[in-house]
Specification:
4 helices; Nuclear Transport Factor 2, Chain: A; 114 residues; six-stranded mixed β-sheet
């Protein structure tokens, strides 16, 4: 996988606000871990498991932030993984580390924010 091409496509999908396009990058058994889940839900949980749970969370996030726009700064490659450094919502910088299954779909993702 070319990490730079993947990063550009991933950013394009998010900036399109097309939820199905965004979700096309993820496996059915996706696990998403991000501090934003705790902030949005007001609870202690920071991980979502399964594409349907992630779909509902991101649907609400896209509705809450209709002007969401990500700006890619850099991408890096690892073993069956990529890390994206980008400017996120509310002028926050983010790093997302994404791990891929055999079908090159993201099955685990960890987000970090400044």
């Amino acid at each position: 996988m070319n990490h730079q091409s993947f990063a550009e496509e991933w950013i394009r999908a998010w900036n399109s606000h097309d939820l199905e396009d965004i979700l096309s990058h993820y496996a059915e058994d996706i696990e998403v871990t991000t501090p934003m889940i705790t902030l949005a839900a007001g609870g202690k949980e920071s991980t979502l498991k399964g594409k349907e749970a992630v779909r509902e969370y991101w649907k609400k996030a896209l509705e809450k932030f209709p002007d969401l726009h990500f700006e890619l700064i850099r991408s890096t490659a690892g073993v069956d993984s990529v890390a994206l450094f980008y400017k996120s919502i509310m002028d926050k910088f983010a790093v997302e580390v994404m791990f891929f299954d055999d079908e090159e779909k993201i099955n685990k993702m960890y987000a970090h924010y400044d």
